[in-house]
Every structure is written in C-alpha cells, then in structure tokens.
C-alpha cells in the first residue's frame, strides 16, 4: 500500500511541483531526485538534490527521509541546512516534504546564517523578545509527546528547577535555566573525568564548549592509528555549540533531534581546543580571520557518521536511558527499532525486548572509554559535555562494531580494524551515496600498490568463483555478455564438479545490433530500432562486440540523434573475456591514457580495419543485484577488465590542478559502475595493509605514512612485503594480555609462523580474517588457524588453483603469483589443537597477523639500513624462509609496549645532547614525550574551571588541611603504604621504610598556598602512589613513603635499583647505601611552575672533579626541564623522576659519589644544606640562560627556620 501511494504521489507532484522545485523523477526505488532553483545576487541558481526514503512500505506515516546532494557546486547555506531537515520531514507525504524543503532552503539562501552567533546583546529589546519566544517554544517542546514516540517516565520528576535552585542573583543562560554554577559544575565534572575542556564565547549568551582527549590515551592499537589516519599529536575533539546559551542534559534530552538550539561536531585537532575561528567554521560560520597555527581542525575519518548520529539520535537515546534506567546498548537498540513508527505502534512495543547487557565486558579498553556517567543517574545531576563525550568515545574507539549508516551493532563475527556497514543493502547504498567511505583518490595517490593488491585479489576471487560478499545495494548497472554462461574457473581440490556438462547453457541476447563507423566512432541503426534504444541516455556505457564474438570494446554514449549514436573513444578490455579467445595484450596502451582520448579512428584489436562493421551492442542496463552469483562474478571480472591500471589513475590525479582531484571527471575512460566497484573493493577492506617496499618503477614516490624499508623481514628478498594487521582496535591489547597470561616469564614468549592460501581466497581473508568455518583444504588436524614454521609448506597451499595466469588481473602492475602471511603466535604449543605437522590454533587472541608477502614480477629496492633491531626468535621454532634459513624479523613488528626505548629520553648538557641508558618501553617513552609537549590550558578556561566563586563547592586551603595531609590522604582510595607490598626478592636490595630523615627539615604548608595548587598537588601525589602500588619496585626505580609527607608542598623521594653496570651503582655498593634521598619542593604556582629538586644525601662528586648526572656542587638537580624555560604544566611527577634517573645515568658524564664513610651517614658532612642547593641552582640557571621559576626565592628563605615535625 505504501509503495503504491508513494508512486501515486510522485506522479502527482511531478506534474504540479511546488514553487522552486522542478525535474522531479525517481531514478531508483525510494529515491526522488529534483532541482531546487533560486535567485542569488540577481542571478538564477540551481542545485541538484536527492530525497531518499528509508522505508517506502511504511510511507508516509512510518517513513523517514534522508536529504542530500552530490552537487559539488551547491551553496554552503544549502548544504548546512540539509543536515537539519531530517526531523522536520518525518512522516510527511512527498508533496509536503518538498514544500518544506523548498521553504527552508529558500530561507537559507536568502537570509544566510548569522556571521557571529555569540554576539548577543542581552539588553537589546529585540533580542529579549526573541528570548521570550524561544522560552515559550522550549516549554511547549519539553514534553514526552514531542520525542517522536511516547515513553512513560519511570522516574520521579525533579521538583526544583536548576534556575530556582541557584538563586535569583545567579546569571542565567539565554538557552534555558542553566546558570553559571551549573555550567561550571558540568565542565568541572568533565575535567575530573580525565578530559581537557575549553570554551569559546560567553556560554551564558552563546558559545562553544570543546571537550578533548589525546588519542594515545584511548587504547587504540598502532595499527588502528595508521588505518584511521591518526597521529600521536592528535586530540579527539567534541565541540558543542549553544547559539542561545548553555543547555544542560535535561533540556537536551527533551529534543527530538539536535538542531539550532544545541549542535555538536567531532573532529581532530593538535591543540586541546581549536581556535575560535576554526570552531565556528565547523558549524558553518566562515570567518575571514586566519586560524592560528596548531589550532586548526582536521576531518575525522568517520566524522560525518558521528555527527549524524549525534544530531539524529543522541537526545532520544538519553530520554530512553532516563525513562527506563537502561544502558547505552539498550537505548540505542530501542531508538533504532522505533524510528519512523507511529506513536500508537510504539505503545505496544515490549520494552523488555530491547534490554541488553553491557557490551564492554571482555574488551581490553581503558577505563575512560568504558566509563558511563549516566549509569543509574538522574540526568538533572549529570554533565552534558561529559556524557556526550563518553557517547562519542563509545562510537569512535569501537567504531568497527557499529554500522556507519544505521549505527546498529554489526553482526559479523570477524573483528575488523576498519569500520564499514552492516548487511542491509540500503546501508551500503547510503554509505556510498553519502560519501562515508574512504577516499578512492587518497588511496590511489598514497598507496597505489595496496590498491593494486586489493583489486588483484578481488579479480582472482571472481574468476575462481570464490567471492562470498558482493557489492549489492549500490545500484550497479552491468552488461550481460554471452560468456556469462561459462563455468567459473575454480574447482575444489577435494570435491568433484557435480554440474552436468549436458546442462543447457543460458543464452544472452544483445541489446541491439548496429553498424559502427570506426572513423567517426558512430553507430548507425535501422529505422525500426528506435524502440530498442528508448532507455539509452547520454553518458551510458555499452560493450560493442564483433559479429563473430571475437573482439569487444567499451564505449561511452556522447550523443543520440536517431538513427546515429555518437560514441566516445573505445576502451579496450585489459584481458580476454572468453575462455577460447586470446585478445591482444594492450597494456602498453594503458601507460598513456591521454592517447586514448585523442586517437581517432580506432579499430578494436583483431578487427578488420574497414569503414564499417556489423556489431552487437550490450548496454550497461542490467541490475547487478538481480542476477545470479555466477553472473555477478563474471560481471565483476568484466568491470575490472576495463578498469585503468592503478598507476595510470595515480598519474591522472596528479595532473589535476586547481581543484580537488577526482576520478569522477575521467568520464571518457572510466565507467561509473567500474568506479563504484573500485570504491567498494577499497571500502570493504577492513584490514590495515601498509606498503613496506619502494619499487623499481616507483623510485620518486614517498609513502605518506606507515612503514619504511627498515621494516622489511630479512631473508625474503624475492617477495614484496606489506605490514598487515587484522582484528578489532583492542585486538593488539588482547594479544598482549594473552602473552602476559600464557607465556609470561619465558625467554621466547612468542614465535612467528606462516599461513598460505590460494590467491582467490585472499579477498575474503583480508575482510573476514583467518577463519576456519569453511573446509577448503581439509581439516585433518582439527579446527583452528593452520600455520607452519616453514614457508615452503605454506607455499604448497598458496599455489593451488592458480591456473595458467588467466586468474591474474590484466591491469595489475604487480602480477601476483603467490601470497603468504606471517603471524606472531603466543608460544604455548602444548595448548594448541595440533603442533605437528602444522600448528593449529583455535584461540584467535593467540594469533596476531603481522606481514603479507606477495610474489610479483616487480623488483623491490632494498634500502634497509640494518638499523632496526632484530626480534630474537626461539631457535627451535624460528620461522624459515624459502631458503630454509630463519628469517630476520625487526622489533618494529611488535607493539611499542613490548619494544625497548632507543634513546627517546635523551638529556641535554649545555648545547650538547648526550646519550642515556633507558629502562622503559617505547610506548612509555612516547607517552612521556607527548606529556611534555602538551599545551597549557588558556587562562580563560582555567578561570572557568578553577576559580572559586562566592558559592563554590570546592574545598578551601583550610578545609584541605583541617585533618592534616595524612587525614586528607586517608579519605581517598590511594590504597596502602608501599611498605606493605611484597618485596621484589632478588631484584633489588632496596628496603622501603628504612630512610633516615633526622637531618631533613619538614616544613608547614606555605602561607601563600592556593586551592588550585593544593588540589593539583593532591592529585599528582595520589596518582604517584597508584603508580607505585601497581609497579614492581625494581622496575619503577623510585619510592615515596606517605608517612613522611606531612605537607603536600614538600615530598621526600628515594631513587634506587640503578643498573648494576653503572658507575653510580658501584659507588652506592661501596658506600653500603641502597638509595639516593631527594627533596622536592613546590610553589603555589604549580602546575605552571616546576618543582625544586635537590639531593639530601649522599654527597655527589662535583662536575669539576669528574662528576656529572646534572647534580650541581650544592646538590641541586639542574636541568632545563626544572626551569620555566623547559617546564610544561602537563608534565607528570612520574616523568620528572624518570628524567632525573636518566640524567644520573648519563653515559658520557654519569653521576658519581664522594667516597667517604660506609653506611647511611647521619652526620651533616654527608648531606647537603638547602641554602647551598639553592645557590647552585641559581648559578646554573644564569650560566645556561634559563628562567628561574617565580616564587623560587621562597625556598632560600625557608631554609633558615627550624624543623617542623
């Protein structure tokens, strides 16, 4: 009924279209295309638009629309308005929807949008009147009925509004009842949850909140970072714009969709917040002012789907969560299940059917990703920026679990590294139509040989009948040629062909017959053939075959003036399409695509060069979705036959200047179905494949990102190598956990093994993983992933079914003949399903794919410098190459958390950089570097987050110390003293709690202490204790005894467990001491000023006597990091102590002790005084030109007072 009604309405509105709308037609089922016309600057303008129905059977009440445009010349105001139209069009008949679209777009292009949405003058009477109208509208809209379906609340309504609770003296936002106290409370809650918070504008009248987090804190694997285009310096930023003032979570959850009152955008930035101009540009407000460097926004690879999800569903998901106390999975499932349904239908739904368990269990995700501030809470008391950011993290970090279009959980059992769509054809269509997938052009330009690899795998799979997934739902139109009746080349190694050779073959008639004039590229038809080409349009493609069916070429229709059809230049297929015909190799022609557009006349290969030939024409007019799987695979191989070489496409894109490079413009060479098929091949690849080699044909190209030649595996010189990663973003962490759990303590915790498979299988392997649910080569040794330590064994399986070369994509530059993958495996062979003659592993968390090797006709350039460290393999289980010798695997193949740092934390001595001995992994070293490079929050943001107002609920300095520092410490979850933890027996001679503090001067809290500094120090101290509790002492190397910390501005720290090969460790052993005692003092400027660190005891050898380690003659630790010149407000105490340790371990000038007395000295002669340390520090700063921190003089003053015990 709905379908017929829609067609009836379409016919009516096409005859009498609304004002401003014309050209209404339906190019596909459920899709309405039309032209919107308007006048701008007295000039007529138009824009091509498309209106997609999500459920034509439920039209109109149960249907929702998706409005979009692929018109690259569309006005910016139009494209901005399209995003806001979805909610308005729900349940509308087609005519009403078009009227609303025309009205809204006309308003947008006529009035535009405000150039400065935050410039609101509260005293302006016009604005006050608009404010009253807005408040009335909000009061009317803030009801369950306006949610789109009626959800009876199961929670008591709040009896006190935020505005009433805050008092009449509080400033209130124009957007509703939120006052400054509520805004500050929400932002502080967000910051305390671990996020950076920034603002632009006055949030009471209109501004933007930016919540961000560095992507390296999200537990995303290195492979996922590469696949998603992320850098270590990136912050994931969520911007929330309030045009009329801040709105809290309770107000937002009442909206049907987010629109003009609250808007959200997600992007990447190298600053914790973008510049003001960049932030407003993200919402469509362009400013002429140039964005400052480092604060620009970068597009997120799934930015469009995330922004759409926030706009269309976030508020409704919140409402369901509050009404039923549900979690994220339940609310998301319910909102998707009821969208487009009438209220009466929703009333009868069983809500219990949508109640799902929490979906974070069993996932190796950081706590900040799994946190849920809305769990079990009344939304009145929860922070909107915090909950919104947690929702974003759920769909960003775990993006591979959700469909990019409908946002539902995907059903695939394969854990992908790249996000994609679910199995619904409509989702795939929208994914392609709306441009959610990866950019073909970027892939071709940056990694052409990866694209070649993907196309080659797909071609071989189609030729061998091994395709399992097809590009259905993207409206592919293909020709139906006679050879489609032939059997596909694949035959199972274990199964006989059961098809009857006597079965009658299906016949395929041509669309029409004609004569072609090769000189003018024109088809000439008979006078009675006009009906046969009635559906033919300019821009359509066809395959023209000779009458004897021996040659074929593809042509684009350039013009139709019956009985003549004007054709473009012929595109010859790259390979034979009939098994019994050998077509001339025309690869040389593909090297010069420009020649194909100018050469006339052109005769198909093998054809007689006469004036005209009788030919048969097969139009691209069959719907791919409606033909059989065998025909589909024939059609795919045909489209790939006509696809240009990847290097030719790269050259074409490089020649485009003055506009964004696009393959769509290559209309006379690249059929649209072939282009869409190429996009599907690239987009459906859910693994990360990065080219390692530079090829002989590619000397000038430089890889934009990813591995280098030092990542090559040695001993596989004849193979082209790719870094290859599969699995969910947390798969690497799960593998690391398995290593730690199953083989911790082993000398060789992992080993490497090969997997081989025929070329036709790799298209599915890179999309579905090394699955073992299909028996292809037998399963004689049990179910699991089959691997071997010998490459020759795996090669035996890779060579199967390859045939005579006809399975290879003719346009390939690689010409792949074999493929192998190299996996890292947890070294527990006794727990495998089988270990001989093959390794058979059933637990996929024990297997991590690392490399893909392909044998090609091309020769790689081995620029391996040999500088990469080699991974030490178990000699008994080493991976053997073709030669039978063990291959050399670089350490860069394993996770950074398992690689030793290689001088990342070097130290400076004057202008000379010295090497240091590090005992940390590379991931930690990079995190320390990232922390040091983090930028300080703006003063305005700090004032909003830390300044205490008259009614502030932040504790004062007196409250903080009302029970003493130890009392404050006991109120936390900072656990117990480290003295109670088990000792690292045999690893260190250090004994916690044995330090002599008799000659240490303990001070009271400084008189000028501030709440913000005290709070920051409390947080730093608690975090340090947590690290100390969770890390073995001998690995940590420092110890803080909480019993000796009575003043948070003064810490006593011991350094211990130095590498026994260091001179300092030798001196300590001779002196019979196990630790170096340090004192750290902080000013009220912390965290914006560094601490002062000095050695208390023992005394060190001065620099002029052969000492070093950045310890001055007075005992002060003097390094640029501990001055205003080198300090950063985000530097952690852990990183400071690590840098001090590394400085003392300097290989060129290590720290040395003055050898005097044995044992822990109690006399002053073995200890430093504060005064001499202060004086030495000031001398060093002046000598190096370093800025002395503000308030440092207080350290010198405090040393004259007596001890405070």
UniProtKB/TrEMBL annotation:
GO terms for molecular function: NAD+ poly-ADP-ribosyltransferase activity; nucleotidyltransferase activity. The keyword Nucleotide-binding does not apply. Keywords: Glycosyltransferase, NAD, Nucleotidyltransferase, Transferase. Residues 968-977 have a biased composition (Polar residues). The keyword Secreted does not apply. PANTHER family: POLY ADP-RIBOSE POLYMERASE FAMILY, MEMBER PARP (PTHR21328). This is UBC core domain-containing protein. It comes from Cyphellophora europaea (strain CBS 101466) (Phialophora europaea).
């Amino acid at each position: 009924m709905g379908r017929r009604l829609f067609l009836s309405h379409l016919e009516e509105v096409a005859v009498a279209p609304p004002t401003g709308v014309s050209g209404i037609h339906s190019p596909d089922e459920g899709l309405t295309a039309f032209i919107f016309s308007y006048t701008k600057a007295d000039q007529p303008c138009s824009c091509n638009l498309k209106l997609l129905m999500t459920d034509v059977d439920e039209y109109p009440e149960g249907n929702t629309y998706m409005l979009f445009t692929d018109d690259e010349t569309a006005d910016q105001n139009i494209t901005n308005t399209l995003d806001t139209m979805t909610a308005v069009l729900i349940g509308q008949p087609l005519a009403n929807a078009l009227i609303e679209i025309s009205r809204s777009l006309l308003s947008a292009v006529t009035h535009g949008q405000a150039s400065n949405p935050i410039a609101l003058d509260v005293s302006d009477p016009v604005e006050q009147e608009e404010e009253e109208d807005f408040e009335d509208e909000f009061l009317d809209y803030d009801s369950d009925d306006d949610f789109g379906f009626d959800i009876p609340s199961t929670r008591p309504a709040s009896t006190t509004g935020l505005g009433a609770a805050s008092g009449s003296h509080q400033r209130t936002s124009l957007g509703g009842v939120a006052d400054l106290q509520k805004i500050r409370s929400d932002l502080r809650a967000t910051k305390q949850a671990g996020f950076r918070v920034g603002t632009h504008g006055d949030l009471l009248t209109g501004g933007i909140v930016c919540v961000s987090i560095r992507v390296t804190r999200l537990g995303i694997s290195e492979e996922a970072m590469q696949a998603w285009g992320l850098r270590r310096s990136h912050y994931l930023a969520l911007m929330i714009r309030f045009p009329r003032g801040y709105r809290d979570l309770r107000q937002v959850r009442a909206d049907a969709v987010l629109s003009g009152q609250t808007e959200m955008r997600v992007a990447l930035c190298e600053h914790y917040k973008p510049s003001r101009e960049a932030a407003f540009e993200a919402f469509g407000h362009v400013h002429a002012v140039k964005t400052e460097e480092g604060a620009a926004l970068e597009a997120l690879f799934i930015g469009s789907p995330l922004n759409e999800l926030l706009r269309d569903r976030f508020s409704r998901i919140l409402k369901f969560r509050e009404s039923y106390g549900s979690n994220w999975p339940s609310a998301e499932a319910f909102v998707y299940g009821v969208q487009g349904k009438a209220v009466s239908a929703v009333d009868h739904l069983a809500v219990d059917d949508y109640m799902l368990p929490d979906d974070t269990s069993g996932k190796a995700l950081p706590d900040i990703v799994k946190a849920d501030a809305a769990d079990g809470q009344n939304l009145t008391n929860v922070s909107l920026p915090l909950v919104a950011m947690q929702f974003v993290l759920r769909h960003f970090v775990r993006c591979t679990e959700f469909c990019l279009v409908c946002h539902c959980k995907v059903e695939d059992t394969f854990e992908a590294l790249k996000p994609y769509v679910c199995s619904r054809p409509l989702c795939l269509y929208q994914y392609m139509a709306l441009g959610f997938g990866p950019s073909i052009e970027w892939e071709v330009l940056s990694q052409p040989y990866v694209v070649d690899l993907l196309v080659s795998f797909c071609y071989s799979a189609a030729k061998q009948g091994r395709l399992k997934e097809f590009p259905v739902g993207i409206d592919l139109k293909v020709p139906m040629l006679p050879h489609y009746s032939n059997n596909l080349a694949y035959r199972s190694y274990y199964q006989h062909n059961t098809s009857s050779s006597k079965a009658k073959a299906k016949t395929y008639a041509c669309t029409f017959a004609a004569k072609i004039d090769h000189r003018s590229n024109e088809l000439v038809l008979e006078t009675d053939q006009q009906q046969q080409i009635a559906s033919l349009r300019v821009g359509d493609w066809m395959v023209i075959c000779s009458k004897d069916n021996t040659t074929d070429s593809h042509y684009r229709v350039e013009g139709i003036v019956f009985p003549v059809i004007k054709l473009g230049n012929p595109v010859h297929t790259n390979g034979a399409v009939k098994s019994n015909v050998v077509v001339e190799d025309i690869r040389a022609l593909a090297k010069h695509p420009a020649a194909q557009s100018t050469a006339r006349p052109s005769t198909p290969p093998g054809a007689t060069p006469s004036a005209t030939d009788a030919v048969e024409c097969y139009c691209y007019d069959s719907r791919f979705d409606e033909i059989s799987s065998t025909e589909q695979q024939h059609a795919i191989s045909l489209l790939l036959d006509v696809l240009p070489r990847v290097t030719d496409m790269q050259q074409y894109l490089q020649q485009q200047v003055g506009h964004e490079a696009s393959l769509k413009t290559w209309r006379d060479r690249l059929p649209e179905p072939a282009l869409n098929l190429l996009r599907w091949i690239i987009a459906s690849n859910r693994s990360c494949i990065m080219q390692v080699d530079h090829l002989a044909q590619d000397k000038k190209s430089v890889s934009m990102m990813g591995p280098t030649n030092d990542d090559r595996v040695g001993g596989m010189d004849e193979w082209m190598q790719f870094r290859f990663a599969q699995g969910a973003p947390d798969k690497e962490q799960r593998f690391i956990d398995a290593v730690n759990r199953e083989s911790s303590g082993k000398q060789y915790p992992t080993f490497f093994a090969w997997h081989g498979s025929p070329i036709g299988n790799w298209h599915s392997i890179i999309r579905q993983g090394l699955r073992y649910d299909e028996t292809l080569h037998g399963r004689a040794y049990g179910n699991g992933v089959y691997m071997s330590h010998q490459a020759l064994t795996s090669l035996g399986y890779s060579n199967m079914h390859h045939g005579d070369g006809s399975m290879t994509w003719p346009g390939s530059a690689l010409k792949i003949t074999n493929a192998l993958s190299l996996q890292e495996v947890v070294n527990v062979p006794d727990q495998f399903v089988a270990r001989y003659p093959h390794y058979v592993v059933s637990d996929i968390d024990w297997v991590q794919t690392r490399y893909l090797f392909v044998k090609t006709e091309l020769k790689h350039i081995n620029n391996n410098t040999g500088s990469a460290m080699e991974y030490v393999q178990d000699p008994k289980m080493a991976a053997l190459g073709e030669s039978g010798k063990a291959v050399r695997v670089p350490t860069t193949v394993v996770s950074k958390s398992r690689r030793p740092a290689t001088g990342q934390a070097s130290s400076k001595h004057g202008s000379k950089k010295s090497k240091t001995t590090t005992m940390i992994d590379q991931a930690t070293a990079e995190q320390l570097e990232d922390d040091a490079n983090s930028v300080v929050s703006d003063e305005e943001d700090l004032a909003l987050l830390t300044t205490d107002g008259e009614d502030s609920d932040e504790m004062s300095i007196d409250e903080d110390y009302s029970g003493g520092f130890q009392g404050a410490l006991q109120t936390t979850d900072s656990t117990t003293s480290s003295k109670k933890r088990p000792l690292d027996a045999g690893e260190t001679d250090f004994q916690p709690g044995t330090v002599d503090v008799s000659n240490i001067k303990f001070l009271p809290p400084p008189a000028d202490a501030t709440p913000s500094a005290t709070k920051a120090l409390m947080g730093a101290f608690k975090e340090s204790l947590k690290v100390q509790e969770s890390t073995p002492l001998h690995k940590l190397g420092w110890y803080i005894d909480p019993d000796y910390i009575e003043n948070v501005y003064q810490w006593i720290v011991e350094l211990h467990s130095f590498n026994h090969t260091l001179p300092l460790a030798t001196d300590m052993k001779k002196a019979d001491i196990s630790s170096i005692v340090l004192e750290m003092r902080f000013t009220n400027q912390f965290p914006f000023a560094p601490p002062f660190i000095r050695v208390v005891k023992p005394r060190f050898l001065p620099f002029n006597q052969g000492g070093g380690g950045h310890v001055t003659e007075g005992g002060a630790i003097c390094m640029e990091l501990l001055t205003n010149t080198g300090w950063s407000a985000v530097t952690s105490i852990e990183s400071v102590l690590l840098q001090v340790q590394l400085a003392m371990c300097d290989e060129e000038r290590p720290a040395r002790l003055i050898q005097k007395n044995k044992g822990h000295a109690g006399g002053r002669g073995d200890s430093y005084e504060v005064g001499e340390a202060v004086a030495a520090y000031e001398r060093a700063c002046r000598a190096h030109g370093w800025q002395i921190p503000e308030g440092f003089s207080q350290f010198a003053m405090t040393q004259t007072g007596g001890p405070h015990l």
